[in-house]
Amino acid sequence: MDQKKAGVLLSYGQTVLSTVISLVYTPVMLRLLGQSEYGLYTLVNGFISNLALMSFGLGSAYVRFFARAEVAEGEDGVAKINGMFMTIFMVIGVLSLMVGGVLVANVHNIFAAKLTAQEIETARVLMALLVVNIAVSFPCSVFTSYITARERFFFQRVVSMIRTVLNPIVMLPLLLAGFGSVSLVVVTLVLSAVTDILSALYCFRKLSMHLTFGHFDMGLLREMFGFSFFIFLNMIIDQVNWTVDTTLLGILSGTAATAVYGVGSQVHRYYMTLSTSISGVFVPQINRIVAHGEGDDALTKLFTRVGRIQFMLLMLVFTGFVFVGEPFIEAWGGGEYEGAYPIALLLMGPVSVPLIQNIGIEIQRAKNKHQFRSKAYFVMALFNVAISIPLCMRWGGLGCALGTGVSMIVCNGFVMNWYYHRHIGLDMVYFWRSILRIVPAMIPALLAGAAAVRMHAFAGYGGVVLFALPYTAVFCACLYMLGMDESERGLVRSVLTRLTGKRGAR
Known about the structure:
Elements: H1 3-33, H2 35-48, H3 62-73, H4 75-105, H5 107-111, H6 117-149, H7 153-176, H8 181-206, H9 218-241, H10 244-252, H11 255-279, H12 283-291, H13 296-333, H14 340-356, H15 359-366, H16 371-395, H17 397-424, H18 428-436, H19 439-455, H20 460-483, H21 486-505
């Protein structure tokens, strides 16, 4: 199995693994920490995470300029790009330490109105550790980007999966011993350091990475920042867009409504990771197609092939959640969170369109035509706020989710699809015809699911599993026989053959 297939499969594996661990570990962690200390950790972590914006979107630019340098100058050009990015990120790391140091020194002034004296001291320690973690992550991100550009996805995903498993294993004994929220940050810092060291060793020893310093091309540097500016702008807009609902609810409806919305939003985030976790696997291929001038037909076929796979997976999860999402939320969060079910549906449904098209973002960046998306998302954020305020006043969290859902449908469903077709060169008529051909294959599974829910009241985790296992089997069988093309069936067969071969070898 090649690196790309392995990367995709391991990405899905990591997503499933991290979701299962989160579902099991998070309730335990909440009980051990207590609401107050977990709230303190969340507050400080969210505050310091804003320092990540100091990357100015340059991390997303690396693979594009790597591909260009490799085509134009070979390994010498790549070494110069590595040196430029490492120098830039080391400077950003130092600046983030300085800014973070100022924040740590003024933690009392920042949080004095909300926290007790003891909480302020704990916040100071948490903030200092998180600042160090973010500062170190900037230069180390060059190694991660280089591994991605070289398409060594197996190493990346395996290391990430090991880290995902180790995190709760190391964390729980510390929490049980009473070390509290500081232990969460210390473990994160240590695991990040180990991961960064492994990535650096892999780059130098296995991939023969070279860095050439002192060869700054000022014209190229200006182009990098020009390219990254709109990515940076989009990062800010995304942060605003996904926090507007909770902010409005906190002001207009109170903490209880905010908590219910938060549970629905958490389910929505799990759903998003099913798609976004694999987009990075195709970044090098997309940039290589553009750098070599292979044409829009190649990009359309890749865009459609990946979109079909993502659509099949997302529809399995979404339709399953439609049937048993309510008992799942009641079992996970408690009966007081039953209002999170329609909120999750209103967020998950509209976001499905951009999720099956998320490698289109990388195609835009590879063509340096991503500026429009930032402008469109800015207008979308304003539209979201404008319609969410009256909807929130009338229907609370449900109204906020409806406002966000409508704005996503308008922006992602119509505006971005028009832009892909008219200005990016992707054949969106071909794309949607190919996607819609999958839908009839889902109908037998949907009818079976509806009949099962009508005949039996599924409750608790046991009921969700009792429904999910046979429903998944029926859904996948229908897709394989009626919805997949021959190449997709071949991919399924190759994966199953490899898995059964491994078992046989044991």
